[in-house]
Amino acid sequence: MNAQKNRPTGPQPPPAVQHLLVRYAKRGRMRFASHRDVGRAFERAVRQAGLPMAHSAGFSPHPKISYASGTPTGVSSEAEYLTLALTATADLARMRSVLDRALPDGIDVIEVVEDSGGSLNGRLMVSEWLVKLPGVAPDAAEAAAREFLAAPEVMVERLTNKGLRRFDARVAVLSLDVSPRGDVATEHDCAIIRMVVQHTEPAVRPEDVLTGFRLVTGLEPTSAPAVTRLAQGVLGSRDSGREVVPPTPAKVPGEVPVTVPDQVPVTVSAKGTVPAKVNVP
């Protein structure tokens, strides 16, 4: 009897008739926004834009927005994702425009496509990262990357919401490519690293890889590195299995694996040299 009294009265909320997959970027000062801050910004934006959002049932209905794991605070991204559930079919181009205008500067909607539903995190299995290392010559970064990849494991520690965790940063790294910042000699003291990293538990972040560099070789940038997530999704079949294919259903070909294979070639290259291949243990 008490359970029935505690149930909300009134009609059930309208069902969702369309699911959308939204790709957005975190740029500039908004890279310092937390995952929760971004969530609040999107909830305000869908209200201001007047989107026909589907809502949960219960005493405190909330818009049906599903978020994927976000980047750490202070990290930029060109490939963050969320899904929206709507009670009416929307025009995708208009949806992208009105949602982008309702968001603060620095949270920019890049693409809105119709989604097939299902778990979003299950379709985001790898990320491609760009890391700029000020004060580090490309040759030094290349040497550190080679030693890191050659190590059977590189144990690092990081404080998480579950306490201090110790884990292997090496096993999640699928590729490392090192290059100078530009062709001008004065800019060669800033190496650039592109890395493809498998999503694991706990997550291996670019900062963990750089910690591994320091532990293995003593390499450490002179100031804070600039980190940007370029892409996330699943591994494609091109580029020796290192292509990161977005999770958009219409763009993921049927032959793309839904899991990361046990053996993936990883590379480290610099200045246009032929990459050396090593197998992930």
Explain what the structure shows.
With 281 residues, this protein is of the alpha+beta class. It has two domains: 8-122, Pseudouridine synthase I, catalytic domain, N-terminal subdomain (Alpha-Beta Plaits, 2-Layer Sandwich), CATH 3.30.70.580; 124-279. The protein contains five helices and 13 strands. It has helices at residues 2-5, 35-48, 92-102, 138-150, 206-217, and strands at 18-26, 65-67, 76-86, 107-114, 126-134, 155-160, 163-168, 173-180, 190-198, 226-235, 244-245, 265-268, 276-279. The strands form three sheets. Strands 1, 2, 3, 4, 5, 8, 9, 10 and 11 form a nine-stranded mixed β-sheet that branches. A hairpin with a 7-residue loop joins β12 and β13. The longest helix has 14 residues, at 35-48. The radius of gyration is 21 Å and the shape is elongated. Residues 182-186, 253-266 and 270-281 have low confidence and may be disordered.
How is the secondary structure organized here?
Layout lengths: L1 H4 L12 E9 L8 H14 L16 E3 L8 E11 L5 H11 L4 E8 L11 E9 L3 H13 L4 E6 L2 E6 L4 E8 L9 E9 L7 H12 L8 E10 L8 E2 L19 E4 L7 E4 L2
Helix pairs in contact: 2-3, 4-5
